[in-house]
Design a protein that fits this description.
Shape: elongated
Largest sheet: none
Number of helices: 3
Radius of gyration: 17 Å
Order of helices and strands: HHH
Mean pLDDT: 87
Number of domains: 1
Structural class: mainly alpha
Number of strands: 0
Distance between the termini: 61 Å
Low-confidence stretches: none
Length: about 80
């Protein structure tokens, strides 16, 4: 069995504005259908991913509990 090439970097979250994954740039449909695609089709999609990722707004980092507590103390 051969490994299937994938752009996945395990940052699986979809940007609601563009519909692209924040990590790899694929759509939900592309992610779910990846295994069934031909290698050529996968390569075509992967060639588009850098341009797609340029359109995705980077998600803000999640606020840690420590940062939230410090911010709340500053407001009081």
């Amino acid at each position: 069995m051969t490994a299937i090439e994938s752009p996945c970097i395990l940052v699986c979250s979809i940007d609601m504005k563009t519909g692209y994954c924040f990590g790899c740039g694929r759509t939900r449909e592309e992610i779910s259908g990846w295994i069934g695609m031909t290698p050529e089709h996968r390569r075509e999609i992967m060639a588009e991913l850098p341009a797609r990722l340029e359109t995705v707004e980077r998600r803000p980092r999640r606020e840690t509990r420590r940062a939230r507590m410090a911010r709340e103390r500053g407001m009081a």
